[in-house]
């Protein structure tokens, strides 16, 4: 139940073309979506020598900036890394616990998207302001993740696990306006 949590905040891309050049190895990652639940087959990594617990989940919140004209924009993704996620036990309860780590990351991705929208509405166009706000939410995400493991004893406390499942599900619903959407950028 040891959890690995990676967060990336990439440097500003100066053109849309350079942003497109950053391709993710899709075989190694699963992007969060509401229609996919993790399976034990997705945990393809091996635990390190110092790894404790029955499973380790590697999740990344990726905020990729790019420019549209002179306006800063961000793509925010939540990625599960198959090659760095591992398990020693394969119980349904443990898998449900690991899925909630992935879902909790999506909660924070939505909070980031919401914050980005708020900054846009305030006509903020300084990369430093966006990065500072995003970094604060990423730190909050790491703390919430640690708290989730601590309060549920890594999923061993059924009542606490159910409380967190309900909490995360409710927050995903409350933030549904900020779920990832497809965008089409046209040359103009």
TrEMBL record:
* Pfam families, sorted: DUF922 (PF06037)
Q: Does the keyword Signal apply?
A: yes
Question: Keyword annotations for this protein?
Answer: Coiled coil, Signal
First and last residue of the signal peptide: 1-21
Top-rank lineage group of the source organism: Bacteria
Question: From which residue to which does any coiled coil extend?
Answer: 109-147
InterPro entries linked to this entry:
DUF922
Recorded protein name is DUF922 domain-containing protein
User: Per the UniProt entry, what species is this protein from, by scientific name?
Assistant: Chryseosolibacter histidini
């Amino acid at each position: 139940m040891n959890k690995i949590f990676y967060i990336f905040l990439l440097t500003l891309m100066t053109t849309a073309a350079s942003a497109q050049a950053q391709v993710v190895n899709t075989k190694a990652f699963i992007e969060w979506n509401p229609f996919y639940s993790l399976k034990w087959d997705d945990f393809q990594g091996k635990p390190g020598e110092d790894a404790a617990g029955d499973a380790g989940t590697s999740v990344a919140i990726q905020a990729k900036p790019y420019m549209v004209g002179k306006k800063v924009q961000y793509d925010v993704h939540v990625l599960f890394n198959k090659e760095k996620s591992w398990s020693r036990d394969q119980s349904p309860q443990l898998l449900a616990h690991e899925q909630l780590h992935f879902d909790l990351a999506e909660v924070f991705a939505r909070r980031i998207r919401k914050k980005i929208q708020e900054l846009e509405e305030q006509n903020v166009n300084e990369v430093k302001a966006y990065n500072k706000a995003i970094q604060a939410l990423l730190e909050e995400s790491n703390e919430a993740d640690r708290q989730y493991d601590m309060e549920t004893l890594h999923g061993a406390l059924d009542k606490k696990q159910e409380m967190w499942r309900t909490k995360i599900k409710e927050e995903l619903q409350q933030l549904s306006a900020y779920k990832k959407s497809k965008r089409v950028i046209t040359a103009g």
